[in-house]
Amino acid sequence: MSEQGREIGARVTAHASASGDAEADLLALGQRRRYASLFLLLAAITVGGVLLSLSWSSVSIPVGQVLTILFGGEADKSTWRVIVMDIRLPRIITAMAVGIGLGLAGLQIQTVFRNPLASPFTLGISSGGSLGVALVILVGPATLFFGATGGGVLNNLGVVFGAAIGAAGVMALMLVIASRVQDMVIVLLLGVVIGALVSGIVTILIFFADEQRTREFVEWGLGSFNRVRWDEMPFFTLAIAFGVLLATFRMKQLNALLLGENYARSMGLNVRTARITILASASLMSGAIVAYAGPISFLGIAVPHIARGIFRTSDHRMLVPGTLLVGAIIGLACGLLAEMPNSNLNLPINAATALFGAPVAIWVLLKTRRGYST
Amino acid sequence: MNVESPVALETRDLSVGYKTGRRRSTVIVSSINVRLSHGEFVCLLGPNGAGKSTLLRTIARMQPSISGQTLIQGTDLSALPGQQLAKLLSVVLTDRLSITRLTGYDLVSLGRFPHTGWSGRLSAEDRQIVGWAIEVTHSEHLANRDVSEMSDGERQRIMIGRALAQKPSVMLLDEPTAFLDLPTRVEITGLLRRLAREADLAVLMSTHDLDLAIRSADTLWLMQAEGSVAVGAPEDLVLDGALEGTFGTPELTFDSELGGFRSTPAVFATVRLDADGLQGLWMKRALERSGFGLTEEDSAFASVSSDEGSTWAVTINSSTTTCATVSDVLRLLNHGRNRVGSPAR
């Protein structure tokens, strides 16, 4: 027993004999204060990040002007209003929704599969979305894909439908497998295998497609936060919001699953139902993201680990809101990086997520020193 | 005689086994009729493959029974919704934990799962029960430590705390003392025995630790090779030969005086031993393990007697040597035996 352990033990006992109820309150109190200040800090960073992203991009707009525009006032330059409201705001909402959605999907998948490397990608959902989009862009009639990655107002639709149907198809398959197969390691491996199979089909499609269509498809695959327009925003944000809601109602179940399925069942959890609803929530969010922003890698793995590192707990009652805030912040940061402020350059989002996310994840993992040892 | 404490769990003609096909199943043990009372500490013993885990898992509803019933607090196990069962029965399993960044306190709190609302938020009462579970399992020093950094014994202790926080009537433990060193095994067994008394809990643990089970259990459930379960106080099962019948083999003798098994090596030669008390007891054990049979007759190959001043006098072929330690005696006897020649079986 360490000195520290002994001291804490003594504190707990002393407290118990003093008040007679809620013995370990003392232990919990310091921790709760820590969590509260962390949440406040993260929320403040999120608000700051939103304002920064609104003002700082290819053209700089003073924060005061941004606030004036947001609250319905008149800006000094009339173009600023269009830039802030119609270009930057949708992009920022998309960035946050992607970070939140992939983070929460990754968190849930990692817990259900008890595997730190599991993510929406390992379940083949992103690959399914890619196949759908490949079919639309590479082999579909030209009217369907016309201007898929830019231009027009309604032309995103073909790509979104393709991605949604492809992602939903693989996701349905994985849910059926997950409800039939007991061993989650097998389910995870099947996800990887199905993902590889689907990617193989996509490769064949690319091989036979013409150059311009291939370029369109590759561009889609790089990911972007600029695709969701205001008229599409309700669908996208509703899908993410519904997924967040499902995850919130599954915090307790996720905690029970930390101990493994046998213990979870022994505590009264209906493991099969819990598993299916949790995967459905993860699939819904990652499917919507593939459809509206492209197959964005890395955030699904990195965000939950960063949240675990910051909050130093595996308790999902902290991790679900924690991942939400961390995901929003990292989404904003990736969006900002991709915009390359004060330049006319635009990086692909997938490059930004890797360039920004990887160092942060490495720092967090090394700083906390302990991984997810098994 | 009919002085019984209230029954927490009982089985009626229960058969356990596993499914081998769509319709077929293999029965391991059938017609089990056992009872587990409040405040009772029961150890489930049996050779490997006798079905200890199968019986335990069936009673915990982690696998289906082949036939028969299990009643918990008078209600058929199969009729209970999961959450209600969880309030009556908790388990400590052999499953390995793979969690990091979870404190002992958080782990014990998970035991409140069947009692909390949708978010799993602990009420003041829940926190009080968690505090109690930590206190009675003496795991205050583990409350703030990460589960992944605990020793096997500490983790077992905190897992018992978690099972206790579930506030069940029955606690089932699958070999909780496996992989632990001897002092920790004694500690954990003692803890379970105390919990049964103090929390009026019905505790059933499966174990391979015969000696410890005999010394601490109120009742033993002995799974016998022929597929039945013998039930009784440990002492009764020793006296009626059930323990020896279950575990004994030609190479293994059950020592009914010591309450443990010892191997029976082939006897190479006989020795006359003349010593009492502790000295006599341990010299007897030394001789037996080295393959010397004890005899009272003069025909013995050698004789060993304890001198005054805690030395030994060894006589072989009427020449006497004085030895200071047991190991010296054994060396001398082995030397003499090799000279005499072939073993006298």
The major pleated sheet of chain B works out as:
6 strands, mixed
Number of strands of chain B: 18
Helix/strand-derived category of chain B reads alpha/beta
* CATH homologous superfamily classification of the largest domain in chain B: P-loop containing nucleotide triphosphate hydrolases
Query: Which CATH architecture of chain A?
Result: Orthogonal Bundle
Total of helices of chain B? 11
Instruction: Assign an overall shape of chain A.
Output: globular
CATH C-level class of chain A: Mainly Alpha
Calculate Rg of chain A over CA atoms. 23 Å
Number of helices of chain A: 16
| Strand and helix order of chain B | EEEEHEEHEHHHEHEHEEHHEEEHEEEEH
Quickly count the domains of chain B. Answer: 2
CATH topology group of chain A? ABC transporter involved in vitamin B12 uptake, BtuC
Give your account of this protein's structure.
The complex is a heterodimer of chains A (374) and B (345). Chain A is built from 16 helices and no strands. With 374 residues, chain A is mostly helical. Chain A has a single domain, classed as Orthogonal Bundle (ABC transporter involved in vitamin B12 uptake, BtuC). In chain A, helix 14 runs parallel beside helix 16. The longest helix of chain A has 36 residues. The radius of gyration of chain A is 23 Å and the shape is globular. Chain A starts with a helix and ends in a 6-residue tail after the last helix. With 345 residues, chain B is α/β, with parallel strands linked by helices. Chain B folds into two domains: 243 residues, 3-Layer(aba) Sandwich (Rossmann fold); 72 residues, no CATH class. Chain B is built from eleven helices and 18 strands. In chain B, the strands form four sheets. Chain B has a six-stranded mixed sheet, with helices on both faces. In chain B, strands 1, 2, 3, 5 and 6 form a five-stranded antiparallel sheet that branches. In chain B, helix 3 runs parallel beside helix 5. The radius of gyration of chain B is 26 Å and the shape is elongated. The two termini of chain B are 50 Å apart. The model of chain B has no long low-confidence stretch (mean pLDDT 88). At the A-B interface, helix 1, helix 2, helix 11 and helix 12 of A face helix 2, strand 7, helix 3 and helix 4 of B.
